[in-house]
Amino acid sequence: GVEIRQAGSNPQFTCNDIHHGQTCGVFVMDEGEGIFDENDIHANGAAGVLISEKGSPTARNNRIFEGKTVGVQVLDGGRGIFVGNAIFKNEDDNVEVSRAGHPHMADNTITECMAGSGLHAHDGGLGVFEGNTISGNKLHGVHIQTSAEPRLVRNTITKQVLAGIMVSDAGRGSLSENDVFANGTAGCVITTAGDPSCYKNKFHDEARHAFLVSGAGVGGLEENEIFNIQSHAIVIEGSGSAPILTGNNVHDCAAVGVCVRLAAQGKLADNVITRMAASGVSVQDEGSTPILSGNR
């Protein structure tokens, strides 16, 4: 494959076929850079592209596919700019970010990983993900966990086998203006102390739930539009689950707008919940004690 090390190393690779390496297809570290345009990077034994220790390449319009592990892996303070790439059919996660890895990924397609998630941010992973299409992945479209805090803006997240977005194990993250629909289990699952900020997203056309908050999940859900959900639109369940819902527009769903059960809590303020097939808000047991104010 290709290995780029040290500050000032900035070669350019265009229209190459980088494949079947025993380890990584491309490895950038120690402040190395590099420009990669229109290459095919595939079938390598480790990550298709691995960036660490302040490596910061620019990758445009490449195809990164059918790797034996991860498509793109950014860790240990690695950075990099990825624009217009097709990242698909890698064996594990298509994109993995951890340990202060901080890429900027825009307008990529991240699809059809074979055993993992489209984007997996964990162990303090960061990064900005903007305008990507994330679809058809084996687990979740996006999985955020263990103190990771990526920022996702204006992505299309659809048709995952499980959740569109999973935030678990004290994962955080900022999710704004994304279009999330037609996923297998829910648009967004927040569990095991997950705590994302979800602002002005659209969640629609889900066979089950737009949001499922359980296992002491929290998070702020603000000004999202939620519609055409075929079960309860938002479910808050279990002791310690206590999200804050503010100013959301929930409409035209096939069951309850917000279902609170199994000793859950939470705050619902100034939401508009209309045209439900069942009730707007259902508190299903005496142990559930949400606070409601100003909802319509």
Provide a compact summary of the structure:
By secondary structure, the protein is mostly beta strands.
Q: What does this entry look like structurally?
A:
This protein is 0% helix and 44% strand. The protein is an all-beta fold. The strands form 3 sheets. A 13-stranded parallel β-sheet has the order 1-4-7-10-13-16-19-22-25-28-31-34-37, with no helix packed on it. A 13-stranded parallel β-sheet has the order 2-5-8-11-14-17-20-23-26-29-32-35-38, with no helix packed on it. A 12-stranded parallel β-sheet has the order 3-6-9-12-15-18-21-24-27-30-33-36, with no helix packed on it. The radius of gyration is 20 Å and the shape is elongated.
Keywords:
296 residues, mainly beta, 44% strand
pLDDT average, as an integer?
98
Structural class of the secondary structure composition? Answer: mainly beta
The biggest beta sheet is recorded as:
13 strands, parallel
- Measured on Cα atoms, how large is the radius of gyration? 20 Å
Q: Give the overall silhouette.
A: elongated
The tally of helices reads 0
Low-pLDDT segments, ≥5 res: none
Distance between the termini: 59 Å
> What is the tally of beta strands?
38
Strand order of the largest sheet: 1-4-7-10-13-16-19-22-25-28-31-34-37
What proportion of the residues is helical, as a percent range? under 10%
**What proportion of the residues form beta strands (DSSP E)?**
35-45%
